[in-house]
Amino acid sequence: MKKKIVSVITIILIMVFGLLACSNSSNSPNRNDNPEYVVLIGEDREHLAGFPCADTLVIDGEYFTAEDVSYLKEKGVKTIYSYLNIGSIEEFRDCYEKYSEYALDEYENWPDEKWMDASQEEWRNYIISKGNELAKKGFDGFFIDNADVYYMFQTREIYDGIVDILTRLKSGNMDVIINGGDVFVQEYIASGEQNGKIFDGVNQEDVYTNYNFEENRFEINTEENREYYREYLEGLLSKGYTVYVLEYADKKEIQKKAIAYAKDKGFIVYVADNIDLQGARK
Questions:
Q1: DSSP-based three-state secondary structure for 267
Q2: Cys staple from 53: which of 22, 58, 117, 127, with CB 3.0 to 4.6 Å?
Q3: What is d(CA 252, CA 78) in angstroms, rounded to the nearest whole number?
Q4: In this predicted model, what pLDDT tens digit does every residue of 86-107 receive, in sequence order?
Q5: Are strands 88-90 and 113-116 parallel, antiparallel or unpaired?
Q6: CA angle, corner 280, sides to 277 and 281, nearest 5?
Q7: What is this structure's pTM?
């Protein structure tokens, strides 16, 4: 009986100190240098105590509870976005068996993933239902992935499907951040933003850096690619959109250069040292 009481007291103390102190444990170069933004989509709730007190934190909300979200906010995280994949489907997701019939093609470099037909009403309704579930958990918004399906399959139906999804998600008074999706974003803005402001900002991966899947190594992006993204993202800033960038680098010198480059341009940056986007493990 005494052992059980001691164990309970120990657990309570761990939780209290967890709330009072933010974790600095990470292999990431910017946990302390840049606490504005942290992306830990590959982490799970088992490592919750190691999550940082970032201004903005992105996690995969499907695997976290409302209590987890509340814990992180009490700990000091200001804004928490949940990953929400609208343009592809992964085999490990519970929804795969039901919705994989709407898959369009294999997803290069990710063998357990397929592009999805965003024009399908059943798929769009499923995404909205997931969004509602995440909102009830206390998330502040959505980190929308794979709007790039429109780059892969440039049809009016898919474009309209993405517009419909984002419009409905935004109507719930949630923040919407599009990861990638530059072709869709530019076309939507060029259209005069026909449905109004259906997203609040973008996250662009691989602006200063790049991950070479063929050679399995981190690289510096080409000057041509950097200039394209710089012009694109600065244009979004000028229109009042928030711009995040997600870089990948395993060498400290490159990590520092990527952070400096982004900050100089007014972008909010996170540099990951792994493509699985883990980093809260002690």
A1: coil
A2: 22
A3: 27
A4: 999 999 999 999 999 999 999 9
A5: antiparallel
A6: 110
A7: 0.88
